User: Fold this.
Amino acid sequence: MGAFRRFASLFRARSIERDLEDEIRFHLEERARRNLVAEMDPAAAARRARDRFGSIDRAKRGMRAAHTPTAADAVMVAMSIGALVLATAMYWRAATHVYDLGPGVTPPVPLARLTPQYTMAARQAKIQGTVRVRCVVVKSGVCRDVTVIQSVDPSLGLDGAAVQALSAWRFKPARVEGKAVASRVFVDFAFALR
Amino acid sequence: MRQGKDKLQGTLEMLVLRVLASSGELHGCAISDRIADISAEALRVEEGSLYPALHRMEEAGWVTSDWRASDNNRRARFYSITRRGRKRVDQVQRDWLAHVEAVTRVLKQA
Assistant:
């Protein structure tokens, strides 16, 4: 695209300048050579080549201008970069968004469950109750950010056992419009002594 | 005035593209000769104005250029037409011929 090319030209101004000098020099020499073939003497051949070329300065200015970005080019490039950043941000947000279960979200399905085991200390202390654990089931079906929401007794190991158990679970991920998405999941682990 | 200049520039670009479309790769000097030959010297622009036009057309994507050795072994910039350039010249030529035809009709009837 022209706008991007002209912007890129800013970074090769030196080689553009050298090229246009070379191009004009070649032209004048080639024209003089062709004039010689038409049986002019060398001085006349060179003079006629210069005359026929017109203003070298004007030609150079025109050639430089062809490669110089315009205000419209600047707007075009800025808008393209803006659009790219916006698209990336939207894609990133969509790709990393964690859904809460609700209408439109097919919930994740546990494929492999692990039951937490009583710790010796909790059993001896006769602790009973339910530990509520929250995690994010990512698209691959594993659990991340496993956190205790409701604790039974933090010191005797049941919370840790619940976190460990849920970390080992595997899920078929939640779906939105048929596509796998990350979702927030709550699991209750009931600890009861028999 | 401005429009007149644009029209002239457009004409030069059309001629250059036409020459490149039929002759393949040429440097500026050869393009100029070809235009002068075909038009029996009727269209002979200052050769200096050819180069800004070539560079603009390259930026527009209608021609590409390549530095190579000329037939007497000098480093020269050769231009060739692109696919977009061919489309462009066909379009411009159609418009131009339609314009000439319309003007001719008016001149004959008036």
User: Anything to note?
Assistant: Strands of chain B lie at 26-27, 63-69, 75-81. Chain B has one domain: 2-109. Helices of chain B lie at 2-23, 28-38, 50-59, 83-109.
